[in-house]
Amino acid sequence: MKQLRLVIEAEDFDAALIFYRDVLGLTERAAFEGEGDARVAILDAGAATLELSNPAQGKMIDAVESDGLPSARIRVAFEVEDSAEKTDELVQAGAQLIASPRETPWRSLNSRLHAPADLEITLFQELEPAETRHSHPGFKKP
Fold first, then answer.
1. Domains, the chain, ordered by start
2. CA angle in degrees (0–180, nearest 5) for 120-122-14
3. Is 36 left (phi over 0), alpha (psi -120 to 50) or beta?
4. 66 with 99: CB under 8 angstroms?
5. 17: which of 58, 90, 92, 140 lies 20 to 30 Å off by Cα?
6. CA 20/CA 8 separation, integer angstroms
7. What SS3 class is residue 111?
8. 61 falls in which pLDDT band (50, 70, 90)?
């Protein structure tokens, strides 16, 4: 596998581009325009992972991250340096706050927002190095 690319169709392309590129800080790798006002921007979001969870895990994450408010079936999570600061920036840029930043049992600071292009997103800030988290209950060594 060389790359995971998540493709999102945005009704308001310009607003979504400003939000994700300029406010969230994703770097534009390429952009293309075509006939009929066709436009695409490919934004670099760093390393990609695919997180699979069963329904019980989803409910547990919802309980921790958003006081039990169910998340969308597909939610995009972004690791950031400062979850609280970036959450404030994204709300000021038009995202709707679902849940403010809170520390999770897996030692990250998570917030949840409804963002442009009708995406539900989680911002997370790791509070502990991955090498030491496996010592906590429930974690497995990779």
1. 13-133 (3.10.180.10)
2. 55
3. left
4. yes
5. 58
6. 12
7. strand
8. very high
* Average pLDDT value for the chain: 93
Q: Please give the C-alpha separations between residue 89 and each of 96, 105, 123, in angstroms, as whole numbers.
A: 11, 25, 12
CB 103 within 8 A of CB 65: no
How far is residue 74's CA from residue 29's CA, in Å, rounded to a whole number? 24
The identity of residue 102, as a single letter, is R
Question: How far does the chain reach from its first CA to its final CA, in angstroms?
Answer: 19
pLDDT reading at 142 higher than 90:
no
55, pLDDT greater than 70: yes
How would you list the strands of the sheet with 108-115, edge to edge?
76-79, 119-126, 108-115, 96-103
